[in-house]
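ARCHIVE ENTRY
Sequence with per-residue tokens
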Amino acid sequence: MEYVQGEVAFSHLTKHESFNGESTGKYSVVITVDADEAKKLEEQGIKLKDYDGKKQRAFKTKFEFQYVDAEKTPQKDELGRGSKVMVAYKVGEPYGNYGTTTYLQGVKVVERVQAGGSVDAFEVDESEIDNSDIPF
């Protein structure tokens, strides 16, 4: 089993991710990695995506996996963007031009950022805003 550290970009660890409104049947986490971790992954034949000049990788599984904090206490909540994690994964076989497959085995939360909920852009404290210039 291999390990990589990074910051969460997207987290679907408590319910399956969806695509076009349909469940994929998979749990996943996308992490942003630093240069050293990126090099380690690339040396294993694992392709990374470049987002805003930063390297990212998705790790997925259809199966149950270990999801714990630093004290190995099981976790139940989704991770927010920027949470620091260690991901345990197995390396699969190379898959054509797509690189080597990675299979999520576990996630250890090093530093948690709470996942944000949906926010109503119009739900603000109007007492702090000068509304005289807003046309609606």
Confidence is low (pLDDT under 50) at residues 118-122. The helical segments are 35-43.
